[in-house]
Specification:
The chain has 145 residues and is α+β, with helices and mostly antiparallel strands. Helices cover 30% and strands 48% of the residues. The chain has helices at 13-21, 23-29, 117-143, and strands spanning 2-9, 33-38, 44-51, 58-70, 74-83, 86-100, 103-112. The model has no long low-confidence stretch (mean pLDDT 95).
Length: 145
C-alpha cells in the first residue's frame, strides 16, 4: 500500500526543510499524537498515539528513524508501529524542490504492508484525512516563517 502526493508551499526551501525536521513543529501537526521523545541519536524518536474512544481506545507506540538526510532536499524515514501484537513497518520520504526562491514543492511517499485486511481497511479509510490535516498544518507553519 502506498500513499503519495505533492504539496506546494509559499515558503523557501530552507524554511520548509526546517519545518519538516523540527520535532516540535511536526508534533503539533501530527494527528492523534499524545507524546513523543527524541532519542540521543537526534535522528530517532519514540512517538505515542491514541486511537479510538472510551473502552475502544488503543495506544500505539512508534519508533521513527530519519534514515537519509540531505538538507534541504531529501528526508527518508522509517517507522515501526506496534498495534496490539501486530507490528507495522512504514517507509517514507520527502523530496523538496525549490520552484522559485520563495516557493517549494514537497513530494512525499509512504509505503506499508498491513499484515491483515482489517488494518488495511482502517488505514485506507483514515490516512487521506490524517495526511491532509498533517500537511495543512505543516504548510501553515512553514509559510508563517
Amino acid at each position: 500500500m502506498q500513499f503519495q502526493g505533492t504539496i506546494d508551499f509559499a515558503a523557501g526551501q530552507t524554511a520548509v526543510w526546517h519545518t519538516l525536521t523540527n520535532p516540535h513543529i511536526v508534533s503539533r501537526c501530527t494527528p492523534h499524537l499524545t507524546g513523543w521523545a527524541e532519542l540521543p541519536s537526534n535522528t530517532q524518536f519514540h512517538l505515542q498515539f491514541t486511537w479510538g474512544s472510551g473502552s475502544s481506545r488503543v495506544t500505539i507506540p512508534l519508533l521513527l528513524t530519519w534514515q537519509t538526510m540531505k538538507p534541504p532536499t531529501l528526508l527518508e524515514w522509517q517507522s515501526e508501529a506496534q498495534i496490539g501484537s501486530t507490528w507495522l513497518l512504514i517507509n517514507g520520504r520527502f523530496h523538496l524542490s525549490a520552484t522559485t526562491p520563495t516557493t517549494t514543492r514537497v513530494a512525499f511517499a509512504a509505503e506499508l504492508e498491513p499484515p491483515n485486511k482489517m488494518l488495511q481497511q482502517v488505514i485506507q479509510s483514515t490516512a487521506p484525512r490524517l495526511l491532509d490535516n498533517f500537511f495543512r498544518c505543516l504548510k501553515t507553519s512553514a509559510e508563517a516563517v
